[in-house]
Amino acid sequence: MLRAELDAIDLKILRELQRDGRMTNVELSDRVGISAPPCLRRVRKLEEAGIIEGYHAMLNARKLGFDLVAFCMVGLKHQSESELKAFAAASEGWPIVRQAWMVSGESDFLLHCVAANLTQFQDFVIEVLTAHDNVDTVRTMLTIRQVKRLGLVEV
To answer: Same domain, yes or no, for 105 and 73?
Structure first.
């Protein structure tokens, strides 16, 4: 299913679910202006097409004891496809890394990290990240505060 195949109701459904994925189908159908059964069919179709990938709770990291958010720009020594895949696979095993992107430009990967404190983050950078066989450079950026937090895409 491509964006061109999505009508105005589908886009409303996506917008509303991105704002609040916990609402009932009845509430969603009221918000988008259709009855509940066709609304549910549309949601299921969006899920089956992979447009809706899942539902999750947004947690307050600070209230759970995770006070540090940082980004790491990682440059690899070798950028062969197998080396890129190997680093991406390794990042899956690092709980401190919450999101990772392969990027172009000065670095090969951008890692979004969340840690309890500076010591935990430093230990990860020194003992895990820079110790990785193929890592050449690591540049870190500690965040000051988050100033914007929206759903991942505008619909």
So the answer is: yes
